[in-house]
Amino acid sequence: MMTAHFSDYVQSHLHPETIFVVGGGPSLNQHDLTVLNHTEHFVICCNQAFSLIPSAKIAHHSDYAWWEQYQSQLESQFTGDFITGCGLGNTKAYPDVVTHMGFIQHHNHHELFNSKMHVFGNNCGLQALSIAHLFQPQNIVLIGFDFKAEHGQSHGYEKNNLASMEHYQSFWRMFLRGFSDFEKIKATQWQKAYPNQALPAIWNVNPDSALTLYDKSKNLSDFL
Q1: What percent of the chain has pLDDT over 70?
Q2: Which of 140, 160, 182, 200 is surrounded by the fewest CB atoms within 10 Å?
Q3: Distance of alpha carbon 65 from alpha carbon 92, whole angstroms
């Protein structure tokens, strides 16, 4: 596990039919995710979602502080291929078990899709979505991409959430703008990187999601 170079891994796993990207929203509780916990499915997990689907191909996180908190749990539970992280908030180097991903911003947007070692976005979910594009799948299915609370709960993998909802809401507004920025840059960069490859269809299986950019007309069961 986690021994191959990530760029080589991408190259050897191109064009899957569907990649499932599992976020953290409360709508996770509406799905039976055990059906995804099989190696036949291509799953990318965000943050603690790896605890729900430990066999995911990739477990991605943004913040170094998150890595410090969950590295022991990852080591004992995660059985997938790669742990990827951006090391936000700290200058410490990751151990070899983590693949360190760089950032794509406006000044280096030409790296989008051309570099297999860069992610786009200001949040873990958008970064995971950009990683999914590197594999050039037919479909990308977003699960738990809510960007709003449900019954006072902001996450589907935490039993309790004591943080202020206003704190989350300010971040969610910023995160949603990031998805719009990604789509604008993607419109030109995809054609440059993959001129003969159709764009993946992106599906959000939470019909009540605040992320309205993507088609919400299908259910998770439609892709299984």
Answers
A1: 96
A2: 160
A3: 10
> Does residue 214 register a pLDDT over 90?
yes
Q: Phi/psi at 192 (nearest 5 deg)?
A: -70, -40
Q: Tally the residues of the chain.
A: 224
Rounded to 5 degrees, what are φ and ψ at 158? Answer: -120, 135
* Distance, CA of 96 to CA of 100 (rounded, Å): 9
Contact 120, 169 (CB under 8 A): no
- Supply the pLDDT for residue 209: 97
Partners of 45 in the β-ladder? 22, 59
What are 88-122's pLDDT values in tens digits?
Answer: 999 999 999 999 999 997 788 889 999 999 999 98
DSSP state of 47: G
Tokens of 195: 């001129």
Assign 80 to helix, strand or coil. coil
* Distances 139 to 17, 195, 202 between C-alpha atoms, Å: 6, 18, 6
Whole-angstrom distance, CA of residue 41 vs CA of residue 165: 34
Any idea which residue has 């953290």 for tokens?
Answer: 24
Burial of 150 (0-12, 13-18, 19+ CB in 10 A): middle
- pLDDT for 141 equals 98
